[in-house]
UniProtKB/TrEMBL annotation:
GO terms for molecular function: oxidoreductase activity. This is Glutathione S-transferase family protein. Keywords: Oxidoreductase. Residues 152-279 form the GST C-terminal domain. Its EC number is 1.8.5.-.
Amino acid sequence: MSYVSTAGEFTRDQRYIASRITADGEDGYPVEAGRYRLVASRACPWAGRAVIVRRLLGLEPVLSMGVAGPTHDARSWTFDLDPGGRDPVLGIERLQEAYFARFPDYDRGITVPAIVDVRTGQVVTNDYAQMTLDLSTEWRAYHRPGAPDLYPEAARAEIDQVNKVVFADVNNGVYQCGFAGGQEAYEEAYRRLFARLDWLSDRLARRRYLVGDTITEADVRLFTTLVRFDAVYHGHFKCNRQKLTEMPVLWAYARDLFQTPGFGDTVDFVDIKRHYYEVHRDINPTGIVPAGPDLSGWLAPHGREELGGRPYGAGCEPGPLSEAETVPAEHTPLA
């Protein structure tokens, strides 16, 4: 399976399933406790957003989660982490089965995160950007007491604008570097990426969070790229002007979020590295997974408290993870 663009510049296919799960059920999928299952992989930054938001909002009791393994083939993500290689709730071996159950001729990417209707076994949506916004706005009746408002109405325009440029230049920008099929396309993506990281460093030098004085959707979206930067993007995707650890403001900001319950406790560095280095064989033909980097720095003091702000606003941190959803100790520096 090839990932490097034959056209030079990498262009992401953004044709996602647009069905939404809403409080009024306008698309035929009303918010209901226990009806849906979030399928994610801890390897994937787009899925990582949904995992973090679900945990921050305390939706675990009403929206179950299936975790696919870190690697996949051309067909789809598989549930090889589960006994017998099947998701225990959906009973399927491959996420592809849920897509085909609704769209037998589905011809786009079988992507995570995806939300599946447990009753029918059919995928509802894989629109990751809208998915997390809906978890914040449409699922409010099921938010835990003290849940943060990750998409406050008064700040939505600013959050949307920050998200737009961060997606274009950073979240997707690292992929445009890594999957570029020509020198010119790679260097253009590289320039945009580091120019935006410099812009983010300037912005975050004066404020603890990207928008306002609490964590928002914008911080979640940036974090899932930053936490993978040194482990994957710096070397594997040739984003090598600097490591994250060599960008003082962004490194402190990322550590601040990592040490905030709901963020770092969802991160599995082993799965992250296995996915990129084993799956992208046109970039890494040997499939050898690097032994580094040293992860202990993620727990170092960050000093960002001096900028003020409260992570959860007037709320409080989420409770402990269930045993079933705890990242293996050997996969994280938090143990």
